[in-house]
Amino acid sequence: MTTVVLADDEALLRKAMAALLPLEGEITVLAEAQDGESAVHATLRHQPDVLVIDLEMPNVDGLGAVAEIRRTRPNQVILMLTRHARPGVLRKALKLGVQGFVSKSAEPAHIATVIAALHEGRRWIDSDVSALAVVDDCPLTDRELDVLRATRDGYSVADIATQLHLAEGTVRNYLSNAMQKTQTRTRHEAARYAREHDWL
Prior knowledge:
55% of the residues lie in helices and 15% in strands. By secondary structure, the protein is α/β, with parallel strands linked by helices. α1 (11-24) packs across α5 (108-119), α7 (142-152) packs across α9 and α8 (157-164) crosses α9. The chain has helices at residues 11-24, 36-46, 62-72, 87-95, 108-119, 127-134, 142-152, 157-164, 168-182, 187-196; strands spanning 2-7, 27-33, 50-54, 77-82, 100-103, 124-125. α4 links the parallel β4 and β5 (100-103). It has 2 domains: 2-134, 3-Layer(aba) Sandwich (Rossmann fold); 142-196, Orthogonal Bundle (Arc Repressor Mutant, subunit A). The longest helix is centred in the C-terminal third of the chain and has 15 residues, at 168-182. A 6-stranded parallel beta sheet has the order 2-1-3-4-5-6. InterPro entries: CheY-like_superfamily, EvgA-like, Sig_transdc_resp-reg_C-effctor, Sig_transdc_resp-reg_receiver, Tscrpt_reg_LuxR_C, WH-like_DNA-bd_sf. Residues 3-119 form the Response regulatory domain. Keywords: DNA-binding, Phosphoprotein. This is DNA-binding response regulator.
């Protein structure tokens, strides 16, 4: 039996997976989490065989949660669900030790198969995820995307600097570059533009 913690902010999808995964394989769902912060708490508390986590969540996103979990549980097996797999995100996740990537639109039976494969020590990146990651028209650097992501989440320049361990002037430079590349007038417009183009 493979134990799992499910983390996804879309309640309907999360509840459906929690109900369907045990029907598709020898899987026990130990806990569910609705954001990155609760995903960290649930994983550290229940210590599942596999953490199934959405890339994009409020408060702390999937990558942030994985980084936090890795500090305490460096060998935690992780399957990341994603709609948009930019190369930068894929690289970051792989550096953090994420073993699997599956599209959020995948059937529960397929997700159950991947969970079993990861539990056996294998890696898995769905072909449609890797194909999306190869086709990248985003002109923004990873750091520019980081500051726009934090802007989208409502943080001030000072907060972003603290969060990303950067000087405020450096954050402003990244934001200025992002605004130029997106031809927008404010950092909030740039963040919205990047979100609409599926870069965040």
